[in-house]
Amino acid sequence: KKKRDATIELSKWSEEGKRQTRRHGGQRKTKMSNFARALSTTRRIGGDNPNRHYANNKIKTTKYTLLSFIPKNLFEQFHRFANVYFVFIALLNFVPVVNAFQPELALAPVVFILSVTAIKDLWEDYRRHRSDKEINHLDCLVYSRSERCYVEQYWKEVRVGDFIRLRCNEILPADVLLLSSSDPDRLCHIETATLDGETNLKQRQVVRSFIDLDAEFDPLKYNSVIECEKPNNDLNRFRGYIIHRNGRRDGLYKDNLLLRGCTIRNTEEAVGIVIYAGHETKAMLNNNGPRYKRSKLERQMNVDVFWCVIILLVMCLFSAIGHGLWMYQYGDKRPVFDVLSPEGTDLSPVVSAIYLFLTMIIVFQVLIPISLFVSIEIVKICQVFFIHQDMELYDEETDSHLQCRALNITEDLGQMQYIFSDKTGTLTENKMVFRRCTVAGVEYSHDANARRLAMYQEVDSEEEECLSHGGTLPRRESLCSQHSGKVVLRSQSTKSHRRTGSRAEAKRASILSKHTAFSSPMEKDITPDPQLLDKVNDCGSQMEFMRFHSQLLNQIPPDLCDVFDFFIALTICNTVVVSSPNQPRQKVRRFELKSPVKTIEDFIKRFTPSRLTSGSNSSSSSSLTTNRSSSQRACSSMLSSPSAESTLTKLNEEHFPGQGLQQAFSPVPPNYDQAKASAPDKCELRYEAESPDEAALVYAARAYKCSLVGRLPDQVTVELPHLGKLTFELLHTLGFDSTRKRMSVVVRHPLTEQITVYTKGADSVIMDLVRPPSDDSKGKRQRKILFKTQNYLNLYAADGLRTLCIAKKVLSKEEYAGWLRCHLEAETAIQGREELLFESALRLETDLHLLGATGIEDRLQDGVPETIAALRRAGLQIWVLTGDKQETAINIAYACKLLDPEEEIITLNAESQVQPNPFLVHRLGLVIDGRTLAYALDKSLEDKFLAVARSCRSVLCCRSTPLQKSMVVKLVRNKLKVMTLAIGDGANDVSMIQVADVGVGISGQEGMQAVMASDFALPRFQYLQKLLLVHGHWCYSRLANMILYFFYKNAMFVALIFWYQFYCGFSGSAMIDQWYLIFFNLMFSAFPQLITGTLDKDVSAETLQELPQLYMSGQNSEEYKPYMFWMNMIDAFYQSLICFFIPYFAYADSNVDLFTWGTPITTLALFTILLHLGIETKTWTWMNWTSIAFSIVLFFMVALCYNASCPTCYSPSNPYWTMERLLGDPLFYLMCIITPIAALLPRYALLHLTVLRTLTIVFMYESVCKYSFCLLALMLNECSFGSFAIQFQNYGLLIKFHVIGVFGLWLFIKIIPGPICRDFGLGLSYSKTQTNTRQVLQDLTQ
Amino acid sequence: MKSEGEFVNQPDNTAFTQQRLPAWQPMLSAGIVIPLFTLIGLAFIGIGVALFITSQNIKVQELDYTGTATSSPCFQCSGLSIQNCTCERNFSLSELFEGPVFFYYGLSNYYQNYRQYGVSKDDYQLSGDTTYFLKPQSYCSPYQYSNNKPIVPCGSIANSMFNDTFRLYLLVNGSRKQVPFDGKGIAWWTDYNIKYRNPSPVNGSFAAAFDGTTKPVNWQKSAYELDPTDQANNGFLNQDFLVWMRRAALPNFRKLYGRITGGDYSQGLPAGNYTLQISYNYPVLSFGGTKKVVFSNVSWMGGKNQFLGIAYLVIGSLCVVMAIVMLIVYAKYKFPDNDDA
To answer: Is the residue at B11 inside a domain?
Structure first.
């Protein structure tokens, strides 16, 4: 039997070279689809599989295989310089002339560190392997030629070219080209939440040439070749074409492609052919894994690691020279204790010095903190865990918590200096509420709406008590519209949706609203303006009347006509998808398909004069009649579905037209009661919009009874007052893009049969495109409207509303035909399609007729002003970068307290000259717009711009493009050398987030792109306060202290051996047993510092939030300044001197042997190091106690076991029974008591100064706030220490103070008040004049 | 996907995850710190005084016999290559040197802690493993083989063993009366009983176990004939050898030679004139070292050492002074506070 294989040709033309190397060189390859493939995989190997060269669908995200693990992992670990260094040292031990330790033992730490990392990697890889396996073994239906049906196969067995049948709610196993759908419109709905986080449904279309197939798709009859581009990671682009056997080519677009990972919704069944599989799918190509950044602290640490290397080399060199001299002094006389080389010859002093240099590197290796790198990683993982676990960073409403996507920059959060924030969705909720509109130059202020919003807030503040019905009754009376009852009811149910409402209700509401994108109760409830509502009703009834009497519609007054068009535009000029609430993903279907205008022939056929004259009427009326009949048909068909009831109630109006009419005309329906009012509520349609603005507008239109009831690719159905359902034939949708800043739909008006373009867009763009007609009366009216509208637009912007303009244009048939020709060319073009479509859209959107404008409010998120104020007090500079217009941005900035009314605002616009303020006021705000920003970012001006910006308290950049945002961040980061944080929620913030040192994404309304690019993802902006001020501060101070402690610890321990070199002829001998030497860091002293590094809190979370000023310590890197490293080194050397010389003198003139003397030194060092940590630890939990006790017990247990285990082993120290004997020696205990105390006395004194600093800030704040007179007296030098101490005691400050502390504080304030004030950033400028001080105190007490 | 009504991502509200573990903050107030400092200070001073007095009660008599000075009785012995040189040093005790008296020899400038020196031994050999007798470990090099015969005990430490011997005479009525040194039990018990082992005798002869080996280069006698008087004090279990093998920590050190406990001297050394007869064998001048002998009695805390006592006194006083300063500050400003209130 001859095999009848269809062929697909997948030629991947080169776009990205990424995966090309794996392709077989040639540009084109003919591949056969895998028909012949049965369940057995043997046929694939048989060589007749035409697509076998393409990646199969098996995914493998693991890094290693069983065999490659060890070499590959080692190879990766050796990329870290420290590891190479330690292996080098361990290997050096195998060289006999220089070895210091037993070679095997010297390998232990390196092996330990490497294996810990390897085990961690292995575990991670195993988890990946498990999840891969799970995914690979998911089932899907693949067409099997041999069985002539679809059979279940594992995902991993899916190959390129396979036909796959997908059912509703299935997840796509690969990137699939949609060939057939059970949907009558040949559509397939998918949810892309896993890819981009957007929860709204997206429509995908069957490939055009397969649309007309009435019969079910038969894979056996498929015989086309597909050419498409190479796999790439662009989710929003797919280009290719399908070549049929007859040579016809059809273009393929992203609308035909179903991506791996998406879920099929609302579609019973779909069939597609696999285009990309496995790692070549767009989803996998987008999966880049976690990001690695290096934090500022780590960069600083690396500098000090480098210094450690220098110190090490200096110490080694010193020892080597010392040894050379020591050897030299004996000359030719060899002392009896000298050992000749193995050959029996003398080594010259120089040679032995060189050997010794290498030996010393081995002995002193601990100075380079090998375990530091591992410890830091462990601590960071714990920090991330704690941040994840914080209840206060958890949003119940969305059940989301903070995510740390970058694991290794937590401490950067404590060092931020500049915050760059997006506005929409970040500072604001991005939940749009329709507030006001202007139509045909008349403003409708929607006062009731404003009142309602105010009411929400009132209800919020009153919380639960308003739940009672009594509270709502008066309001119902006060509202006269027929919606009042409904509104009040809503307000009852929705106020609990607010965050401050009861938790349980919020939870329920969130679960309900989760299924629908952008439909919060806020934007759904709109109280219509009565005046406008009347107009709409009026207009509808007139039209109904005229249609009934076959009159021409243009007799309607133009302003009514505009109102009507305005609402139609609001309703249809969007991409909102309609679904019903009970089954959120079930599309409401009412109408049969009519094929859209897709070709010129089609167009000509459908727009022939005969059709236009006679057919048009019939078609318009028929469209109306079909509406009714089909809707009833829909009803009956829906009876089986659970939503049938709701649909029926929705259709009430059609069943009882009289009632509908009555309802429309009488302000309050006579038989209106709550039960009926709530019934439509229950069955209302849900709108799924791509942007919240669209949803807000559609809901607004619905409030005026202009509801969108159905949307198909080729038609939109609208329900209008009096007119009932009208179906607009949707000829084209020209989607929104950020360059055009507008979108348009081209429809055929069902009443006038005119081709009408409705455009909606940013006012700046639309107002330029509006061209008043030249004839006088109309033109004059339009100009007047234009003028008025512009005024209102300015007004809206001043109120902080987002403005949109609505315009329309009527096209003549000829115009349309001419434009359509170009447009179709553009659509079918394969290369440069996007550009051509763009140009085509530009051609259409000209000479518009302005209908009106809308004002949408974007409410501030909870706690934004407070957060901004706190962050600002923490010394953070906050810049807002937004794409919004200047007035809106300024208003939001005022609302969120970014700008202060007292501030002088410098506005930089391209037109205006920069006026440098001659007397720079203290508070200054800078507002700059996009066009000016472009100049300011120019190389020649950027320094000036920065200089101005720095002197301003706040900076606001409006109308900035995503690129400009990232350029601003980059400029500030690079030029000012500051730590920058960028926060945003949308795709337009991604570049900014990536450029900044720390990128934060808001997992909010606008999808997941920002989150995907971010290092941290927050559910709300206000969490930034705790994240930075508390967690950032903690992470930074913990890690900084731990790093310093590590340096100290290692230096202290190594220095002990260094001092000993003076007493052993610089021979590299160590009095500390090599076991202790090697395991001291890894075991004995490892745990307490990890616990402290993870859990220590220098200041409590409450204080940190109350006193944001404390954050400045991190900004100024006060926990870890370069000098601190040296201070720690000096302290380490001092402490080691004490630890060395107390035993030295205590055992002077005794018969002590080497290790009986060295073991106490080790013990003392351990005690000193632990006590040092104890001093550094600010909060002691049981874990700190346990870890310290554990360390000590571990040391003694190990020492006792080790010293009792083998009498003859462990050469050369051979420490048999040493520890046991020491425990019987009173001298040992005496030294253990005195040494740590003596060693730590200076540190303790120093610590008091530093603690004092922190406490002084707390004290100053509190005393200034509460008892300012005390400080005032102090500052005026009128306060003696005595009275100061009295005040101190009197006011019972929160902190229990050391007397020494009080004394120090008094001295501190007495002696250096100026620097303190500067340091603490309280903005104090100390002055002895009373007035000034008063001023300062006033500032502070505010 | 998610079951409704459940917060899948909700963090656990525990003290640990919320970082609210009960914690103690060591912010010590004056009421705690002053007594604490006083207490520590007084305790330290007490310990210091006790240590100091104990140390003061220890008597030490040191005699240098290097013989660098021409007036020194051992001057002629310090010259090179004089075999079996004996010299005598006289000293007198004005009062009873309370016992038990420990007798040490001391070396200075002698680096027993030199790294290559330290490894130059064979622990297996020293634990009596005869397989290592004929094949010493390479650590012993260059004292591994001598004239192609394996050295037992090999290595630099053994080779450089201190070989001066001492005899102490009390002059009673012009005649010398030998004061016996007790050389038993001067090494660590574990060294003598566990760590070091002699080879088992071959055919009943202890010396035969050493067949095929040679003595260390610098030794005059073989290991099995170190102490002709006591058969049990030979081989690796010789007390002096054990003491020597335990390397000193610092370049100036002393090692126990014997105790004076026997007979008439159990109470100590009586006042009188003594003569120390030294069989001077060990060269130290080549490396600028000195040799000395030390008579000392010991207390519970070991030999005479005033350092620790002084250290305790100093630190203890510091603490007390701090406490007093605090108390003054506290007393001066705390009590008016109460009056005010």
So the answer is: no
